[in-house]
Amino acid sequence: MNSRNLHVIIVGASISGLTLAHCLSSTNVDFTLLEARSSQFTHGAGLVIQPNGARILDQLGLYDKVSRQAERMVSHTTSFDDGRLLLNIDIRHITLRRTGYPLSIISRQALLSILYDHLPRRDRVLFDKKIVRVTSSPKAVTVHTADGSQLCGDLVVGADGIHSIVRSQMWQYIRSNKDAARFFLAREMPLHVSFTGVFGISDPIEGLEQGIAYRTCGTGWSMLILVGTDAQVFCYVSIACPPSSKPHRRRQQGKASLEPMLEPFLHVHVTRQVLFREVFLHAKSCTYVPLEESFQNQWSAGRFACIGDAVHKMTPNIGQGANCAIETAASLGNHILLASNTDAPCTEESLGSMLGTWETAHKGRMRTFSWVAQSVARIEAGGNCWKRFLRSYLGYYHAAMGIALLGDITPQTARVQHLPLPPHKITAVDSRIDPQEKDWSMRFSGIPVVSTIIVALLLVVQSLTRPEPSGVI
Ligand SMILES: Cc1cc2nc3c(=O)[nH]c(=O)nc-3n(C[C@H](O)[C@H](O)[C@H](O)COP(=O)(O)OP(=O)(O)OC[C@H]3O[C@@H](n4cnc5c(N)ncnc54)[C@H](O)[C@@H]3O)c2cc1C
């Protein structure tokens, strides 16, 4: 085997960039990770680690660390905004039984710290390196930083989020090299903002219990409250906004400036006893963000590739943004390793062709996640009677199955090919003695029929127009 020590430049030290760095750390591939921030610390609230992300973290030796800092999710409640409970699902075993991994609630900051602190080649991560330009030649790719420095490599990977500079530079490259377009109508997809969101972290609140996800929906909005370790409360409010030609407000922080926007939600029930007002009053941090959605139809060209939010940005309603970012990073790592282990010369064409194979293999799966996230966001915030019916119907009859199937591990789920699969963690749960298991087995018995119905219903919803604005923004 020929080891050619490919040098990969990764732009962005967040979930996807650090996961890719971990995947490459145990190989002969060299990498440099450049991050615009001045330190590892960043904003964000809570994330749910689902089995598709958990298995990769486990392969990388990080899952036990994640488990120690995460709260295992025990139940998921869906309520109407007046506090009436639609459904409470005990989800302790739902994913554990099928995959060996429970759903876990962890703060975004804790996950990023684990990814960074346990990176074997931490000296390869450089902070305060904002990329402003990327140029490519047949021999190498060069990234230019805001401080005037340059770095050359074989491949540049944009793990730099929704406003990816690498993605825009890749499209500039495609425009000047028409052959690099993967199909006739390939183009950079615009970012859509149909929802804006507020992320927050609050101190413990009496009545909100650790390990529970509280979901409430209303016309033009939906709300998800996750209670993590030490009863820390992570909240996420998604608000439908009217179509507008005006650019949306930029990221904004602070309780005082967000109070007018959240005022209409203060009376909303999180549970029968707890109002959203409590969550807001206890908030330690609050951030407003436009929730862009975009699925890019081309992820790579020549010596460029993009992963994570840079190519598949979804609303957080199904909690898959971070898990999908982990998956795309691992799948790209597999293909980079294959390219570095072949005898063929490392040309722009050979790298482009390797990246084309990666895209074809992985893009369809991510398209499905993006589509489901898009549909769920619209159903949850739906205002007309059809969407309200659909919301209650799906929430009541199919929430459990949706939760189980979304993060499920299937042959298509990405994993790190050069690392062994973790030993199966399932401790057999006897359905004869656990009533929850019996209930769960019954819910699962109609998978094929029910899945078909769900897909048909979602298809109808997809064809509907924008979500009804809540009138708040
Ligand atoms: C600040 C923030 C908070 C979030 N909070 C939550 C949450 O609480 N719950 C939830 O479910 N989801 C949250 N998300 C979404 C979820 O975390 C994303 O789906 C996931 O982080 C995607 O990871 P990523 O690595 O692809 O991109 P990102 O997490 O967006 O990371 C991109 C990285 O690239 C860096 N970067 C950007 N431009 C440049 C440049 N020019 N040069 C160098 N570096 C650059 C950024 O500083 C950042 O570190 C949040 C996202 C962000 C950005």
Automatic annotation (TrEMBL):
<keyword id="KW-0560">Oxidoreductase</keyword>
<dbReference type="InterPro" id="IPR036188">
    <property type="entry name" value="FAD/NAD-bd_sf"/>
</dbReference>
<keyword id="KW-0274">FAD</keyword>
<comment type="similarity">
    <text>Belongs to the paxM FAD-dependent monooxygenase family.</text>
</comment>
<dbReference type="InterPro" id="IPR002938">
    <property type="entry name" value="FAD-bd"/>
</dbReference>
<feature type="signal peptide">
    <location>
        <begin position="1"/>
        <end position="21"/>
    </location>
</feature>
<dbReference type="GO" id="GO:0071949">
    <property type="term" value="F:FAD binding"/>
</dbReference>
<keyword id="KW-0503">Monooxygenase</keyword>
<keyword id="KW-0285">Flavoprotein</keyword>
<feature type="domain" description="FAD-binding">
    <location>
        <begin position="7"/>
        <end position="339"/>
    </location>
</feature>
<dbReference type="InterPro" id="IPR050562">
    <property type="entry name" value="FAD_mOase_fung"/>
</dbReference>
<dbReference type="Pfam" id="PF01494">
    <property type="entry name" value="FAD_binding_3"/>
</dbReference>
<protein>
    <submittedName>
        <fullName>Monooxygenase</fullName>
    </submittedName>
</protein>
<keyword id="KW-0732">Signal</keyword>
<dbReference type="GO" id="GO:0004497">
    <property type="term" value="F:monooxygenase activity"/>
</dbReference>
